Each structure stands twice: as structure tokens, then as C-alpha cells.
Amino acid sequence: MTRRSAAAVDATPTPPVCVQDLRRSAAARLAPAVWDFIAGGSGAETTLDANRAALDRVSLVPRVLAGVEKADTAARLVGTSAALPLAVAPMAYQRLLHPDGDLATAEGALAAGVPFVVSTISSHTLEEIAKVGAALWFQLYWLRDRGRVTELVRRAEEAGCQALVVTVDVPIMARRLRDLRNGFALPSWIRSANLEPDGPTAAHSRRPGESAVAVHTKTAFDATFGWPDLEWLRGQTRLPLVIKGVLDPRDAEQAVRLGADAVVVSNHGGRQLDGALPSITALPQVVEAVGGRCQVLMDSGVRSGTDVLRALALGADGLLVGRPVLWGLSTAGAAGVAQVLSLLRTELEEALLLAGCADLAAARTLRSFVSGMPG
Questions:
Q1: Per the residue annotation, which of 98, 124, 216, 268 is the catalytic one?
Q2: What is the similarity comment for this entry (predicted)?
């Protein structure tokens, strides 16, 4: 029998064992400008970096002798049953990452048993994505044309979406320096399928030193969006209403007063106000402010099952996961998305067992310390 050489052994592909492995794969596959578009943050990327650092400062105190052999990760998020306390965050223009774009992401979410939040500026229509069969929520940006807002809400209802997620932290798109340096614009074959299905828009016009996507956003989005508009929206639909982009507990309280079913503690993954508070740091005060009157979700910086457990221990009901899903999508389409979510499930199950928790309710009773202070 011929022995395999060391070189042959080294050439054998190693399957990813954590989502960071897929990050490296995605970075190697994607064009530099596309990688910068999904990986970058705003300004000096202070908040982008702070999200990760803040999560790493959360230490958990595991329980022992709990007699737990298997951990239950099932959750109910805003009325939707989920195999994990996770939903796939809304992310724009996913065909930049893979030809199947949002359809592949929906397929991966379906395989993992978690909701997929469809972006207003998805690169497939809401109706096309709904045919995949995943549990869908629809993310709404506030447009200058209120008639278009109403139309999108009705389409979400008719497509069977189970919640409406309103992003409230993008009155304008922040300056994302990587995109400005790259003069980033969408290729001609990428569309905002729900808004501009028939031809090129400002988002396709490349100019040095300018982000065409930011120009398009400024044209389409209404910077005057305010609480009265949200109150009006609450009266337009019976869908559960999720308010995404909350960091101040006072805003969380106001959202509850206006009928929100959930808030998402989020700084938009470090892509809006640079210097904004990390989401995990803001989370406990928001949880305290709403006092159980609505669910509290979180996003920004989540990279592992341990991160999920950290957020649960600090009071979150669930989390939205963003960039890691895109890493999986760009690497292997629907299978890559499913792989990311499977890795997070494996890590969360292990973290729960090691912390002595049989389920998510037990996770919320764990003690935590943040930078040495009791949490």
C-alpha cells in the first residue's frame, strides 16, 4: 500500500469549523470592492470594531451539576417558531455575493428552521423569495412616496410574511469610506427588485469618490421619518411590528407605547453613526426599559454560539445574524448559508451544555460580568 505524502495530506480541503473560516473563504472569492461593501463600516469604523470588542468583554458564569444531557435551542420570535433564537438579518443586493442571491439565503434559512428577513432593497422580489417556503419577515425602509410604503406593506401581507421589521436608523446612509474610495456602484444586472425592477438607477452610476448606493438611498429614503409616521403605520397592518435600530431605552419605551411587538437593539453593524454604542452594551438597559412588554432582539457583531448565549444572558429574546450569512452565501450559496446556521447551532448547543443550561430560559438566568462589573 502506498503511503500518502505529507503534501497530499496537506492538500485535502479542511471543512469549516467556525464561521470565521467562511469569512476567510468569502474574502478570497469576492472582488475587493464587493468585499469592502459588505465588510466595511462607516467613518473610521470605530463602532464596527467596538461591537466585536464589547461582546468579548462579556464573561459568563456557568452553572455546574445541572444534570443536562441535551440542550433545547427552540425559540418563538415575534410569533414565529424557530429552531434557534436567530433570524437572518435583512441585507441588500445579495446577488452581489451569489447568482441565486436572496433565494439561496431563504433556502438556507428554511433548512436551518429560522426566519429570513427580506430587505426592501433585495435583489429578488418578495414574491419570488416567498416561493422558497421559508418563514419570512419583511424589512421596510421608509420611502419618500408613502404610496409605495403602503404598497410594500400590502405585498408583505399577501406574500405571507409573519412580521414587519421597520429600520429606523437610516435617515441618510452614513459615509462609508471604503465605498467612497472604491467609487462603489452596482453592476447593471443587480436590481432593487422590489422598487426598481425595470432599469438602471442612480445606484448603478459609478463616480470616483462617491458611493452610488448612498446617492440612490438619499433619493429614495425619507429622512423626515418620525414617530407620527410609525404610529400611522401601526394602524395600517395587523402584522407584528418590529422596530430595528434602537439603542436608547427612551426610544424603546416610545416604540412600545406605539404598539411595537419587538425592538432590535442595533447600530446597523457599525454602518451608520460611527461612535455609536455597541449593541451588546446597550442591550441590558433596553431590556429593563421595556419590562417584558415586547420582545427584545439584538444584532451587530454576532459571530458565534457563545455570542448568542452572551446576549441571552443579558436579556435578549433572540438575535439577528448578518455578515456571517453573507460569507456562507458567497462561498457555497444555499448550502453555505445553511452551514453557517448549522455551525451557530452546534456552538450554541455546546455553550448551553457547558453553562449548565437545558434551554433558552435557563440561559437568561446566567450571571454575567462586563469588563469586571456584575451584569
A1: 268
A2: Belongs to the FMN-dependent alpha-hydroxy acid dehydrogenase family.
Stated pTM of the model: 0.93
> Which residue in 159, 119, 158, 113 sits closest to 138, CA to CA?
119
Q: Check if 268 is active-site.
A: yes
Residue in the block written with cell 462579556: 58
Domain boundaries, given as residue ranges, for the chain: 17-60+69-366
Question: Contacts by 95-101 with C-beta closer than 8 Å and gap 24+?
Answer: 95/123, 95/124, 95/189, 95/190, 96/34, 96/37, 96/38, 96/123, 96/186, 96/187, 96/190, 97/26, 97/30, 97/34, 97/38, 97/326, 97/329, 97/330, 98/329, 98/330, 98/333, 100/333, 100/334, 101/329
pLDDT of residue 207: 79
Q: Helix, strand or coil for residue 136?
A: strand
What are the residue ranges in the chain where pLDDT is below 70? 1-12, 197-203, 205, 372-375
